[in-house]
Fold each of these.
Amino acid sequence: MPRWRPNVTVAAVIERDGRFMLVEEHTAQGLRLNTPAGHLDPGETPAEGCAREALEETAHHFVPTALVGVYIARFQRPPSSGEERRDSEEDVTYLRFAFAGTLGAFEPDRALDEGIVRTLWMTPDEIRASVDRHRSPLLLQCIEDHLAGQRHPLDLIHTDASVHAPPKA
């Protein structure tokens, strides 16, 4: 029996003047909204992954300053149009680390990740009113927790040195 592994993702909760930066992206389910987010890559801490994903999806530098929360969600994903036909949907679990932080410099010539159409700034009420377009069921919860002032120190997440330099076998 294969070992169960959740998909670890990182998300940037970026707020400015009462609005939150979201990305609009093409998905198998159509155009969806999300916070700048993506999968954690090998050899990086969750905060480093969050900064990388924010840059790749928004062309803005982002410096995580606090952990908003750790979230988990499970859903059934239908096969994409280009995938082999499967008799059942794929059971997917995401473990998300969401960070608040400082939005930095914009790189206007930087290409956005494949599938990202644009960034946009939305109010909390606009985000609440667009739940049917959210890519992740965790998007709104991260925004609500941020609005509630939920912040945890970055050192809540301990990263062993082996993440950056795995021990030799």
Note: The domain at 7-80+88-155 is CATH 3.90.79.10 (Nucleoside Triphosphate Pyrophosphohydrolase).
Amino acid sequence: MSGYDIIDEAFIDTSPDLVWQALVAELSGAAGFWVPFNTFSASGPPDQVGTEVKWTVHAKGVDKGGPKLRFTSRTTAVDPGRRLDAEYFEGVFRGHVTFTLEPVNGGLSTRVSIHFKAQPQGFVKILAKVADVGLKHSQAAQLAFSNLNSRLGGRHTANGVAR
């Protein structure tokens, strides 16, 4: 396969404000809901244009061996609380990612999506011939969303304060 164009989404039973806070914390390196498959470190706040985020995909899980796919993104656009766009410019992918949050159920729930549009580089081009990298991406995204819902589900904000 020459590239990936994948959209994964889920509904989180909490407000977009809390989902946004968790997403920004995760991309900053919190290791809260994307573990065991993805970890992150950032050069600054991921929700600021120009911030670089280093992504590591742990194919078998953190500390389980196996290949580690490393790549770096740069935040290119932010609509706070609603959307974060970044470009992959270094490592095993080149392309773009967009995180989108939409309020549903009167703002008590959130539709969260990740749009991953990227071309594999280096050894991932070879890996893609023997493993379904796109399927693995979606499985990891759905697990992360499930973990996020388990952590935040049922929590809502009133005037910006979690209750």
Note: The mean pLDDT is 92.
Amino acid sequence: MTTPLRRIAVYCGSRPGNSPAYTGAAAQLARTLAEAGIGIVYGGSRNGLMGALADTALACGGEVIGVIPDLLNKHERAHPNLTQLHHVASMHERKALMAELADGFIALPGGVGTLDELIEIWCWAGMGSHAKPCGCLDVNQYWQPLFDLLAHIRHEGFSHGEQQLLRSDDPQQLLALMTAY
């Protein structure tokens, strides 16, 4: 029996990236989740894709919970209008609280921090720490190099049979894959 998706943690950049498609995808994902009655747990910033995600979900009446480490709050500035905002002492605490609050995980385009959060939560699934779906919203094939690397890892015999990392370029299709997981 699958657990309903009440909240999804979304990992994404605190910068907008070089393509307007990234901001558009963050807004489209936020609308899709809000319309489905699924809350968002994210990094708490008002900048970049994080801000676009939060602003759109809030405008659509969605629940948005931010989790921001004190160190990042000095640089990124927390979003002032969230449903809830949790201040934590470290990135480790942020990751653990986001994992606790969410029923699934989606990565939008982002930098090394986004990649770190995605790989860690997916690794936790592979080790049996949770059975929640993990996926990538593959805007303009942003995540293709990662999937190429994962295929290379499997080909070279270093894969442990990890849990499936879901992927789609369409938020509704990705949500359907996660719901069926």
Note: The two ends are 10 Å apart (CA to CA).
Amino acid sequence: MRAAPANVVLTALREQIAQLDDGARLPTVRELMRAHRVSQATVQEALGELRQAGLLTSQVGRGTYVVKNGAPVIRAPVAEAPESAPDDRLESLLILSNASLNERCMLVQNHIVEELSRSGSKVVQISYHNTGHLLDILTSIPRFDAAILQSHYESIPIRLLSLLQGKARALVVDGHTVSGVDIDRVGTDWEDALDMALEHLAGMGHRSVALVSLDSMAQPILAVRRAFERAGRRKAQWQETRTIMLRGVHNPTHAVGDALKEALSGLMDGKGRLPFSAMVTLGLSDSFGIRRCLDELGIGRPRDLAVFLLGHHDVPSEHFGVMSIAGSSYLEGARRLIETIRRRLEAPQAAPQIVYLECARTLRESTAAPAP
């Protein structure tokens, strides 16, 4: 049985079709979503039933048209202003990012700007501190062909997503911080990266490990913390596991060293030893701060503590050429964002995609077997 919202949309569309000429074009899926305040799935369900009834036909990349007298009549496109370019064209892109973005986000932006500039596309980049202020700004800017919202370790207000859907024909989130919404996403499976790190540490003989995490309720952080807790219940592999959330750290590069120093110093015994031999970091991009903290506490790596980062193996500032790291590639992320946008513009009615970037592990001098 159809849900009530689908019936409402179906009835409204039937009334609209009755008033339109053969070959007339319907509003886009996103426009119908906004008009009826329903999800993309609800609109697609109604459109699908009308297509089965022979009242509509869809042209990939062009839109959905009314059929009344047999075969569909698709009118030749009329030359319009640049802002009404064909649906599959990417002429303008908006990139939004929090002002606390790390080097990985900047590298992704730089690659996208360079790639799209070759085809003459215009890119507007907005960095924001306050979401409320951003919402005010977005209400007054023009529409774009597409928008990218970079968000990895912060919660995204539904109102922001809704506003962006109204400002762009294609919206993709760079990161997996949203769930339960019909929006394309590109991000890293950090649970996979965690498995790579733990597998390596266990294989080297470590039986006690700590997960040092950014203090965030964002979905990727929570998912990895839950995965780490499950791993800790495998007593045949791990004798001691603990999660440490750094207080006062609001973004991946903010005061990481000082917060880590405060957390670790409170765990050291009288001989300056920690209750674990290995440490995995999550959501932290300040490798320099981590090294400085360990040096100031007199914790040698990997002699006293093996350190494994979850991050991006092609971002030098995250590993400085000395830290073992598991995670994805910023370059692949940038390419997949562009691909996802183009796919959405070509097929606006396709189901939203969640694109997981391939994870890899790079071993360096920060990890070794535990001291005897």
Note: Residues 71-85 have pLDDT under 50 and may be disordered.
